[in-house]
């Protein structure tokens, strides 16, 4: 950020972050930093003020503000077992699917799922191979991606792997409820001075939109911050693919031009499958019913899917 500010002669810039890119930057804008001299993790109001001065706006996609109790207890990482290498191996296998995936979308989809499933079979987890096939749908809704999108993803993934050490540390971080080893609660690190456009997908298996909704309300954002949930999107396709460019990108551009305007509210309200909340003093009064329904529906859906996965595993054990 300092490099960008210096290179642009101090002009304001727009930050666009996805998933952990949301979490990291939001923590940074709150003034959170690691003291190089003492090794302590601190929150500095002066740093927060400096960032607020230089950031014109922030657009966030699928940032895991919090996880539900069920997700903590029965997370994707735990499905892979206590060894984080398993998760990294499976995910890297999915990223490293064959670059030459052919002209047809069906073949591309088959390539992604087959590579990940085969890795689970190699690990001796035939039941979880079926589960993983469902989880992939929560990572990316393949209906929202063209053949070219998938080709690009597979080619990009072939040179980028997920660090096993990162998975291990993130697993611990999630298990602690987003509290660092030093006791810093990352869900409390916010900066409401910056205009924000927060985007979530109801199909997202990694970042819970119901819990993110609750987090948005509890942290009392300003009227310059807008939270939008899209029914048809999952985690990755929120920021990548042909449907993102068609559905979400125009709203982002409108936000950058107008801020949280009445016109933007109208545009979102008239977008199929989109619901929104806007911050401000009357936030809780206006959205309690909406938030309650969203939370209950989201938790019920996750609870149902969790029960199905558990049943799959139990049936397998009985079969053996």
Structural description of this entry:
The chain has 320 residues and is α/β, with parallel strands linked by helices. Helix content is 54%, strand content 11%. The protein has 14 helices and 7 strands. The model has no long low-confidence stretch (mean pLDDT 78).
Tell me the layout of helices and strands.
Layout: H1 2-7, E1 13-18, H2 20-29, E2 32-34, E3 41-43, H3 45-54, E4 55-61, H4 69-73, H5 76-79, H6 84-95, H7 105-122, H8 126-139, H9 147-157, H10 164-175, E5 196-201, H11 209-218, E6 225-230, H12 242-258, H13 262-269, E7 274-278, H14 283-319
Parallel strand pairs: 1-4, 4-5, 5-6
Antiparallel strand pairs: 2-3, 6-7
Helix pairs in contact: 6-7, 6-10, 7-8, 7-9, 11-14, 12-13
Features:
14 helices, 320 residues, alpha/beta, two-stranded antiparallel ribbon, 5-stranded mixed β-sheet, 54% helix
Poorly predicted tracts of residues:
none
Overall, the morphology is globular
Let me know the average pLDDT. Answer: 78
N- and C-termini, Cα separation? 55 Å
Q: How many β strands by DSSP? A: 7
Q: State the helicity in percent bands.
A: 40-55%
Helices, by number, come to: 14
Strand content: 5-15%
SSE string, helix = H, strand = E?
Answer: HEHEEHEHHHHHHHEHEHHEH
Which structural category do the helix and sheet elements fall into? alpha/beta
Strand order of the largest sheet: 1-4-5-6-7
- Radius of gyration computed on alpha carbons: 20 Å
- Main β-sheet description: 5 strands, mixed
């Amino acid at each position: 950020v300092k490099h960008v500010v210096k290179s642009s002669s101090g002009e304001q810039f727009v930050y666009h972050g996805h998933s952990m890119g949301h979490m990291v930057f939001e923590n940074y804008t709150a003034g959170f930093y690691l003291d190089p001299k003492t090794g302590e993790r601190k929150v500095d109001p002066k740093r927060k003020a400096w960032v607020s001065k230089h950031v014109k706006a922030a657009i966030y996609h699928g940032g895991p503000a919090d996880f539900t109790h069920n997700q903590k207890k029965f997370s994707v990482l735990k499905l892979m077992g206590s060894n984080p290498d398993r998760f990294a191996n499976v995910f890297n296998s999915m990223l490293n699917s064959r670059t030459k995936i052919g002209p047809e979308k069906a073949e591309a989809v088959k390539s992604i799922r087959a590579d990940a499933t085969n890795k689970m079979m190699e690990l001796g987890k035939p039941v979880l191979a079926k589960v993983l096939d469902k989880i992939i749908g929560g990572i990316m809704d393949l209906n929202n991606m063209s053949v070219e999108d998938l080709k690009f993803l597979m080619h990009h993934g072939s040179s980028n792997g997920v660090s096993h050490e990162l998975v291990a540390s993130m697993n611990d971080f999630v298990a602690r409820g987003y509290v660092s080893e030093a006791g810093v609660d990352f869900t409390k690190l916010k900066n409401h001075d910056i205009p924000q456009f927060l985007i979530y997908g109801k199909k997202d298996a990694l970042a819970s939109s119901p819990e993110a909704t609750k987090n948005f309300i509890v942290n009392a954002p300003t009227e310059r911050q807008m939270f939008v949930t899209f029914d048809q999107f999952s985690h990755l396709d929120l920021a990548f693919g042909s449907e993102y460019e068609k559905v979400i990108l125009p709203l982002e551009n409108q936000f950058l031009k107008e801020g949280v305007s009445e016109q933007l509210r109208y545009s979102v309200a008239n977008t199929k499958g989109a619901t929104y909340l806007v911050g401000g003093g009357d936030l809780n009064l206006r959205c309690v019913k909406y938030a309650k329904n969203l939370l209950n529906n989201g938790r019920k859906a996750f609870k149902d899917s969790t029960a199905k996965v558990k049943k799959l595993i139990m049936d397998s054990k009985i079969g053996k």
